[in-house]
From TrEMBL:
Residue intervals of the Aldehyde dehydrogenase domain: 505-963
Molecular function (Gene Ontology), one example: L-glutamate gamma-semialdehyde dehydrogenase activity
Identification of the protein by name: L-glutamate gamma-semialdehyde dehydrogenase
EC assignment: 1.2.1.88
Keywords: NAD, Oxidoreductase
Family recorded in the similarity comment: Belongs to the aldehyde dehydrogenase family. RocA subfamily.
Pathway field: Amino-acid degradation; L-proline degradation into L-glutamate; L-glutamate from L-proline: step 2/2
Residue intervals of the Proline utilization A N-terminal domain: 8-117
Residue ranges constituting the Proline dehydrogenase domain according to the UniProt record: 127-429
Reaction catalyzed: L-glutamate 5-semialdehyde + NAD(+) + H2O = L-glutamate + NADH + 2 H(+)
């Protein structure tokens, strides 16, 4: 343990010297310039800030001047707080100022903002900027911008840009003047330039769920970069981005560096805002110590704070970042100390503009007797210029981080930078724009007590999906896949009146990805069993209906707990039984748990009678009663979630249930019943009746004991059941209620302002996840204006990069379809499509199961079969529209009305879609699948369904009859007055 003496005193002295620079305001904050005024306004007015950034974000993709000025008006004309400079501009435009001229001025203005932060557009610019910096006594690190890499092609281009840069730069850099400070650290010579790259941009399918595969693919792209860095004498840094990929990046870094044991100039970024950063840093140091090498560690605060907060809160995962800036600042100091104490194995690179953090690092370096050149400071291009000059004077090596790239992909970066500058906590804002006092700036950061929002809610919260970036979850999933495989071929009984019964006739459940594998053999029922099941349900109903709603809800909560206990096994089973990928399978289990938790709470709410009208002398009690016996008929595509949703809703509202699963997922169906059984559900309340739909299903639909049918499946079957249920035979005492959720022909509209990275990803996931076999899947894409070709080009390369194979392999994104008839149907539609439209893309996928590769048709007639029929497979029909009105008209030209989406950054178009795009679930700028219980209640109208939305506040009402009891409280003139 070292004694640091009066460190605080020294920090203050150093800080005082740096603080003296406050007068030198960087241009972005200089209020004498128009940009400074805009930034100043943005800092004060949150709504203006949001619109300003949104406008800047969309601007580079706007191809016509009409759009540029049109959107300017959209974003700002209704904004009372917009600054004069913008209001004047809008005023001039509306008075006839030429849009062409106006749009040129706007673009030039934003380019000038971008130029503050982005060092150049290509490697030629980069080389020039680096040369100039070197002359001024600063080193540089080049980062090629580009946010989302969607295909191997794009990843390959990203890699090549680095190789080209290093090859071209090396001979130029060799001619730069000697600079002892920049070219040496405490242990020897340093390269003259550095590159920074994002591992996620080097492999389009990088995902920790596919841990080994992702690392192997990333390494293939990183090896040439490191080899070139070695031969051209460059240093390099692995940048760090989303927390979700953090462990993967660190592991990739270590593995690559072990291959390049003779390359001493590698580095990696560590983000101090991450709670795990201390453990990560210590791990890296231990690794470097063991390998007897020294690596650079660039200590940053982290640039994705808002993203991490929102993303992880949406998922229900613990927050990986500190919530308070003070905590991050404090942790930065803790990590700085660790770096300095271990400088033998790590080169400390302090990347911040914060005077306190910098002064702390310097003071700590001094008391630790660390030579000045052992420390490196890094700052962003366009920020903190006065500071870096001062630090250079003090004898420290400064490296400027230089983002290079087109404005278009660079814009996301720029927007982040701008956000960072104007957010409440940014140091630069406080320092330069608000002139915070020296004491405020130099005081040591004080960690704050943590808010633990995760623990608070007792109200419904969605079950968090598994985080496959965690090694333990991947391991448990692998074990579960193994144990489910060991159970292949097992026999499963039916369940009537609390008894498990085996029958001779069986449904053989096959693995659709490998037909040689029998997942299970499930006893199949006949009408006799149906009769017994109905009798058992009737017998149990009396007692079940009088069970208190809270107690019925409790069975749901206990079943949810059972699902949680076996969530890996259930997910693994779905991987085999219906061909879901790991994440999709887990998503289904999570949704099943959500239904149980949500409907349980809903029933507690609805179970309390309410008194209507408050008049003296009368009482009007309004409450709900169960309908009776509910037949649940479910599909295979969400084999646990949809079945659980319907069964749970029926049960909790007091009905007894006969559950008929799909013949393609009877083993999963059986597991559902097992969980309810283990939760202690009384005998006879839930029967499990797998069997042929036409026989058992139809028989029960018309059965006199059945009061209610909850069906989810195809339109044809649904309509038939509605018709059968409507026939009232002799002796029937009620009209059967049918809740039917059916198919879709869902469309996504893409206009010319759409953000293409998000759009391509969103369409890809919506259309092709689970091979397009989600009822909400996108099967029509409607493009507006001239985005069509660029969108399709990127979509094609993205699809080409998807790995096809067995769903049990976590690398797989394209698996099988459910059975042979589904495959034949898809193939038939492809033949029809070839006649009706132009085949733009198709991809063959082989395997021992029912594999159908993705297909895209273009020039599709909106009224053709391809655009009208539900195919339920990976077939995308692309249709062109002149404008948004036509796009909405095409989208609505369908008998279905389930889900739909729009990708747009044009508020007017988004508004139109909200008003006129007639679907049950409309999604804006996100994928159209993956509705969450309680957050996006799900269900459509038209031929997509008759029923209130699943997972919504009205759903349970369908399973009950409302009653009202009015009592005259007046007896001979006396009445209670309340
Ligand atoms: P499907 O209609 O073929 O089968 C659904 C269920 O009905 C199965 O259990 C099946 O055995 C049973 N069945 C079939 N014929 C029957 C009959 N004559 N009488 C009684 N029962 C019968 O549908 P599927 O292939 O399992 O599922 C895919 C379909 O479901 C797609 O059309 C999809 O869009 C739709 N779906 C809709 C939603 C939604 O919420 N709207 C959700 C999931 C699936």
């Amino acid at each position: 343990m070292k004694i640091y003496g009066d460190l605080e005193k020294r920090i203050r002295e150093i800080g005082r010297g740096l603080y003296g620079l406050a007068g030198d305001v960087p241009s972005i904050f200089n209020k004498r310039r128009w940009m400074g005024r805009l930034m100043d306004h943005a800092m004060k007015d949150a709504e203006f800030r949001l619109n300003l950034f949104r406008y800047i974000d969309v601007l580079p993709s706007l191809k016509t001047s009409d759009l540029i000025v049109g959107l300017l008006q959209e974003y700002f004309s209704g904004l009372p707080g917009a600054p004069l400079i913008i209001r004047k501009g809008i005023d001039r435009i509306s008075r006839g100022f030429m849009p062409v001229v106006a749009s040129k001025m706007i673009k030039a203005g934003v380019r000038s903002i971008a130029g503050q932060f982005i060092a150049g557009e290509d490697h030629h610019d980069a080389i020039k900027v680096l040369g100039t910096l070197w002359e001024d006594g600063f080193a540089g690190s080049i980062d090629f911008l580009g946010e989302e890499v969607l295909s191997d092609k794009e990843a390959g281009q990203y890699m090549l840009r680095y190789l080209q840069l290093m090859e071209t730069l090396a001979p130029v850099a060799a001619k730069w003047n000697h600079d002892a400070l920049l070219e040496n650290d405490d242990k020897g010579q340093l390269p003259r330039f550095e590159i920074s790259f994002k591992v996620t941009s080097l492999h389009s399918q990088l995902d920790p769920v596919n841990w080994d595969g992702s690392i192997a693919s990333a390494k293939e792209s990183i090896r040439p970069i490191v080899a070139t860095a070695r031969s051209t004498k460059a240093s390099l840094c692995f940048d760090m981005e989303q927390y979700y990929c953090k462990d993967l990046v660190i592991e990739t870094f270590k593995q690559v560096m072990e291959e390049f044991g003779d390359y001493p100039y590698a580095g990696i970024a560590i983000q101090a805002y991450l709670k795990e950063s201390r453990t990560d840093l210590l791990g890296l140091i231990a690794w470097a110590r063991k390998k007897k090498r020294r690596v650079s560690v660039r200590l940053v605060k982290g640039a994705y704070h808002d993203y991490e907060t929102v993303y992880n809160m949406q998922k229900g995962w613990p927050l990986p970042v500190f919530e308070n800036k003070e905590d991050t600042d404090n942790n930065f100091e803790v990590l700085t100390r660790i770096l300095i104490e271990n400088a033998e194995f790590v080169r400390p690179v302090i990347a911040t503009h914060n005077i306190r953090s910098i002064s702390h690092a310097i003071a700590l370096g001094e008391v630790s007797n660390l030579p000045n050149n052992a420390l490196e400071f890094q700052m962003l291009h366009g920020m903190g210029e006065p500071l870096r000059r001062q630090l250079k004077k003090m004898g420290y090596r400064i490296r400027v981080y230089l983002p290079v790239g087109d404005l278009l992909p660079g814009m996301a970066y720029l927007v982040r930078r701008l956000l960072e500058n104007t957010s409440n906590v940014s140091f630069l804002r406080g320092f330069f724009a608000e002139n915070r006092s020296y004491d405020e700036i130099i005081n040591p950061p004080e960690p704050k007590p943590h808010r633990t929002w995760e623990k608070l809610p007792v109200e419904f919260r969605n079950e968090p999906p598994l985080d496959f970036s965690r090694a333990e979850n991947r391991e448990k999933m692998r074990e579960a896949l193994q144990s489910e495989r060991e159970a292949f071929g097992k026999r499963y009984p039916i369940h009537i009146d609390g008894k498990d019964i085996f029958r001779e006739k069986e449904i053989v459940s096959l693995n659709p990805a490998d037909l040689e594998e029998i997942v299970g053999r499930v006893s199949s029922t006949d009408r006799n069993d149906a009769e017994q099941a109905a009798a058992a349900a009737v017998k149990a109903w009396d007692s079940w209906r009088s069970t208190a709603p809270e107690d019925r809800a409790d069975f749901l909560f206990r079943t949810a707990a059972e699902f949680r206990k076996r969530r890996f096994e259930l997910a693994a089973l779905e991987v085999y039984e219906v061909g879901k990928t790991w994440k999709d399978a887990d998503g289904d289990i999570v949704e099943a748990i959500d239904y149980l938790e949500f409907y349980g709470r809903e029933m507690i709410r609805l179970g309390r009678p309410v008194n209507l009208g408050h008049y003296p002398g009368e009482s009007n009690s309004y409450f709900y009663e169960p309908r009776g016996i509910c037949l649940v008929i479910s599909p295979w595509n969400f084999p646990l979630a949809i079945s659980t949703g319907m069964v749970a809703a029926a049960l909790v509202s007091g009905n007894c249930v006969i559950f008929k699963p799909s013949g393609f997922s009877p083993v999963t169906g059986r597991r559902l019943v097992d969980a309810f059984k283990d939760a202690g559900l009384p005998n006879g309340v839930l029967q499990y009746l797998p069997g042929p739909g036409q026989e058992v299903g139809e028989y029960l639909v018309t059965h006199k004991a059945v009061d209610l049918i909850a069906f989810t499946g195809s339109k044809d079957v649904g309509l038939r059941l509605i018709k059968l249920a409507a026939e009232t035979s002799e002796g029937r005492r009620n009209i059967k209620k049918v809740i039917a959720e059916m198919g879709g022909k869902n469309a996504i509209i893409i206009d010319e302002t759409a953000e293409l990275d998000e759009t391509v990803k969103g369409v890809l996931e919506s259309a092709l996840e689970f091979q397009g076999q989600k009822c909400s899947a996108c099967s029509r894409v409607i493009t507006v204006g001239d985005i069509h070709d660029e969108f399709l080009g990127r979509l094609r390369s993205a699809i080409e990069s998807l790995r096809a194979g067995l769903p049990e392999d976590p690398a797989t994104l394209i698996g099988p379809v459910i059975d042979n008839s589904a495959l034949k149907k898809i193939q038939n539609f492809i033949e029809v499509g070839k006649k009706e439209a132009s085949l733009f893309f198709s991809r063959e996928v082989d395997g021992k199961g029912f594999f159908a590769g993705p297909v895209i048709f273009v020039g599709v007639n909106p009224s053709s079969a391809l655009a009208q029929e539900e195919i339920f497979g990976p077939v995308i029909a692309v249709i062109r529209a002149q404008d948004i009105d036509e796009a909405i008209e095409i989208a609505n030209n369908s008998q279905y009305a389930l889900t739909g989406g729009i990708f747009s950054r044009n508020p007017l178009n988004i508004n139109k879609a909200c008003q006129r795009f007639a679907v049950g679930n409309l999604y804006i700028n996100r994928k159209i699948t993956g509705a969450l219980v309680g957050r996006q209640p799900f269900g459509g109208s038209g031929m997509s369904g008759v029923g209130s939305k699943a997972g919504g506040p009205d759903y349970l009402l369908q399973f009950m009859n409302p009653r009202c009891i009015a009592e005259n409280m007046m007896r001979r003139g006396f009445a209670p007055i309340s």
